[in-house]
């Protein structure tokens, strides 16, 4: 059972304010050590167990009849998080994300109505080529977020997230356990090749209800 919500010494309000400010000024915000290590381990183990039971699917590109799997573009496997998942850690994170969504609506007038998220595993050797999460066929994604679930990530394990900023500069985020990255979904980014299995919880805040994003 999770005890404290995220990092006890930082109030949720301060974290939300930091994220809102980062999104407004830079288009992204990195919060390192946001999740306690015990949460990271629990969620990583949950993802591992579900994957071993065959619950994950190959991630694809596009929606409905445009959907294709192409490992030369993205090689991760995913499991969509549903409301009936009985994992307390996921429930806490869902509440955190929904509170963040409401905070961003209040402070940045974003009109975000829902969110969707999936667990992702990048097997050794896989990557996700440069792309944006908000694209012609799905313009409903406005804010992307990723919680990294690799308790013992170290240099050389790869799988860094590289974000391409509009001014031509780049920023690289290490997928270290407990880090949360939030960024505007129109920013192009890529996942560099993972040299060890890479775990994350990735999601999007939407301007519509989830489940109708193909409209
Ligand atoms: C994605 C994605 C980034 C990451 O799933 O669309 O870009 O760091 N993920 O996992
Ligand atoms: Mn992406």
Set down the secondary structure blueprint.
Layout: H1 12-25, E1 28-31, H2 37-52, E2 57-58, E3 77-80, H3 88-108, E4 114-122, E5 128-131, E6 141-148, E7 161-164, E8 170-173, E9 180-184, E10 188-191, E11 198-206
Helix pairs in contact: 1-3
Bound molecules: N-oxalylglycine and manganese (II) ion.
The site of manganese (II) ion has 3 residues, from loops.
What does this structure look like?
The protein is of the alpha+beta class and 215 residues long. The chain is built from three helices and eleven strands, in the order αβαββαββββββββ. Helix 1 crosses helix 3 (88-108). The strands form two sheets. Strands 1-9-6-11-4-3-2 form a seven-stranded antiparallel β-sheet. A four-stranded antiparallel β-sheet has the order 5-10-7-8, with no helix packed on it. 24% of the residues lie in helices and 27% in strands. The termini are far apart. Bound molecules: N-oxalylglycine (OGA) and manganese (II) ion (MN). Residues 128, 133, 146, 161, 189, 191, 200, 202 line the site of N-oxalylglycine.
């Amino acid at each position: 059972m999770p005890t404290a919500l995220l990092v006890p010494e930082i109030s949720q309000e301060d974290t939300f304010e930091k994220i809102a400010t980062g999104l407004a000024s830079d288009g992204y915000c990195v919060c390192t050590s946001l999740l306690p290590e015990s949460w990271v381990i629990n969620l990583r183990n949950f993802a591992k167990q579900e994957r071993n039971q065959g619950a994950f699917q190959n991630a694809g590109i596009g929606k409905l009849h445009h959907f294709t799997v192409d490992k030369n573009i993205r090689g991760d496997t995913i499991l969509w998080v549903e409301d009936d998942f009985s994992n307390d850690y996921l429930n806490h994170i869902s509440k955190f994300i929904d509170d963040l969504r409401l905070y961003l609506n209040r402070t940045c007038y974003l009109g975000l109505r829902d969110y969707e998220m999936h667990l992702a595993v990048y097997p050794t050797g896989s990557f996700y080529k440069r792309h944006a999460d908000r694209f012609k066929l799905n313009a409903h994604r406005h804010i992307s977020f990723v919680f990294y679930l690799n308790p013992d990530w170290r240099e050389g394990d790869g799988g860094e997230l590289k974000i391409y900023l509009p001014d031509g500069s780049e920023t690289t985020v290490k997928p270290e356990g407990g880090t949360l990255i939030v960024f505007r979904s129109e920013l192009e980014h890529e996942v560099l090749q993972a040299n060890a299995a890479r775990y994350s919880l990735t999601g999007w805040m939407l301007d519509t209800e989830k489940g109708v994003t193909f409209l």
